[in-house]
Amino acid sequence: MSISKTTQNLLKSLLPDAIFLSLSHRQKVGRFPRLRHPVTFNEKILQRCLYPDPRYADLTDKLLVRDFIKRTIGEEHLIPLLASPETFTEADFAALPSSFAMKANHGSGFVKIVHDKTQTSFEELRALGESWLKTDFYDVARERHYRDIKPKLFFEALLIESDGNVPPDFKIHCFNQPSGAHQAYILHISDRFKAHPRGDFYDEEWNQLAVRIGHYPCSTVPTPRPAHLDAILACARSLSAPFDYVRVDLYAPGDRIYFGELTFTPGAGVYPLYPESIDYEWGRMLHSQPILPTLATATPDMRSREEERHAVDFAQR
Predict the structure, then answer these.
(1) What is the mean pLDDT of the chain?
(2) Cα separation of 308 and 294, whole Å?
(3) pLDDT tens digit sequence for 62-90
(4) How far apart are alpha carbons 25 and 189 in whole angstroms?
(5) Of 228, 231, 198, 225, nearest to 214 (Cα)?
(6) Among the listed residues 235, 251, 238, 247, the one whose alpha carbon sits nearest the alpha carbon of residue 282
(7) Is residue 118 exposed (0-12), middle (13-18) or buried (19+ Cβ within 10 Å)?
(8) Residue 221 belongs to what H/E stretch?
(9) I want to staple 137 with a disulfide (CB 3.0 to 4.6 A). Which of 146, 174, 197, 257 is the partner?
């Protein structure tokens, strides 16, 4: 007997966060995680989902983070903000330029690229925006810091390369050790908004690495080293400096460098890494947090510690 999607979603919503994340990790990574004594990168990201640093919410909010970017690397690295209305109206739509990007601040995947405004409508964008704003992104993957982000639409200038395409993403995984050592791995995603996006990993010298993450296939031919790679890495290093780990997303059309977002829990701890040894290698570079939240990290509506203790014990079985 099949179970309806509504029933499945209801059952999922009743699961404590630790059990939900453990089952998701088992389904996508292939093994149950060790939440009490995490070893791999994904396991330590799961721990961040459960006990986020209090800084994560504001720095994950794609609007509030702009102040941090301005103070840290300069306003010139911010994509021009066209509008961030409390309510999206026909007047707001009329005031937008012929091309732009519509986004929401409170999650991943809330992006609509508009190359030609005459090919869309206010009604279409309003309906899409309303569906985004109704999405509780915490419910999607139980990344708890998303509960503290107030959903909001905003519109940015559309970044375009000289060939007319949207520039590739530089998703830079930054690790900072207590000794002061810094290491970065660059995931270069090209053709993201086309039918066949590709993801290639490079080290800081732009040597292609035999590493894959998630569903992205690798390119058959390595991408040429960006002319201003050193400047890209310098921006990422400055933005990542306050954290032991963060993924810094940047764009580099022409000779410019623009900030995309900061991600503290990539893939919500359930993104398969290939080969599997990378999950362990990155895990050794990321220091795990205490299994129970401190008063500073706990939020008023966080589930009781007793409930979490039982959930973690279940996940270890």
Answers:
(1) 90
(2) 14
(3) 999 999 999 999 999 999 999 999 999 99
(4) 24
(5) 198
(6) 247
(7) exposed
(8) none
(9) 146
